[in-house]
Each structure stands twice: as C-alpha cells, then as structure tokens.
Amino acid sequence: MAVKFGGDPYAELAFDDHTVEQMKMQSNKNSNSSTMLNEMDHISSNFKGAQGLTFPKDLPLLLFVQADNQGVKGWIPLHEGQIKDSIHGKVITMDGSHYLHHTKFKEIAEDVRSFMKEAK
Fold it and tell me: Is the pLDDT of residue 62 over 90?
C-alpha cells in the first residue's frame, strides 16, 4: 500500500526504464524481507534505544544529509552532533529529497572516494 499511495521515487530520474524496473524489484524484495518487517515492528523502541548512543571515536563517519529538511527541526545540527567526537567525521549536505542516493549517486560516489583517501 505504501508503494501504491506513496508516489514513485524513481519518477523523473535519469535512469532508463530497464534500470528503474530493476531498482523497483530490488526495493520491493528488500522492503518485504523479514529483517525490514522486523525493523518496522520495532521502529519506535529501536529509535528510543539508539538515542544517546555514540559512534566509536576512531570510526570514520561520512553522512550525506538532505540540506533542507523542513520536517525535522535541527536536522543538520542533529547530524553534526553525530560526528562531533569522531576523529574523522564529515557531514555533506545536498539539495534533494530523502532519496539522495537516487538523485545524487554520482556526487556521493565521488565524495566517498575522496573521503576514503582522506581517512587513510
């Protein structure tokens, strides 16, 4: 139902029909997996349990964040707080929707390559 009424996240993207079909099949397969269904059953308790946790200081962190998320107050500072104690953490903001990996995949790939070189 969510797919039916949620709109097409692949509409107007620079992918051919075959690629969009493949991505939709992959999304459908993953979203109906036992792991995803379990996560949805426990999303509230998992979110509460994760609050206040931190990443290990020596874990390189690279976060790609929607630049203008009107739905969550303090969206950017929330992510900056996640990396603040990391010896190699970085937040990269990008214009786009929640699905940045659909629309900014080339930029994300390049930024990951650069980050990996810096993190060595």
Answer: yes
Rounded to the nearest integer, the mean pLDDT of the chain is 89
Three-state secondary-structure class, residue 89: strand
Task: Indicate the residue type of 4.
Answer: K
Place of tokens 């707080």: 81
2 vs 119, more confident: 119
> 120: which 2 tokens?
């060595």
By the 8 A CB rule, do 20 and 13 touch?
A: yes
Contacts of 68 (CB under 8 A, 6+ apart): 95
Q: What is the pLDDT of residues 66-87, one digit of tens each?
A: 999 989 999 999 999 999 999 9
Distance in angstroms (rounded) separating the CA atoms of residues 103 and 14: 8
Alpha-carbon distance 16 to 44, whole Å? 37
Side-chain-side CA neighbours of residue 80 (13 Å)? 6
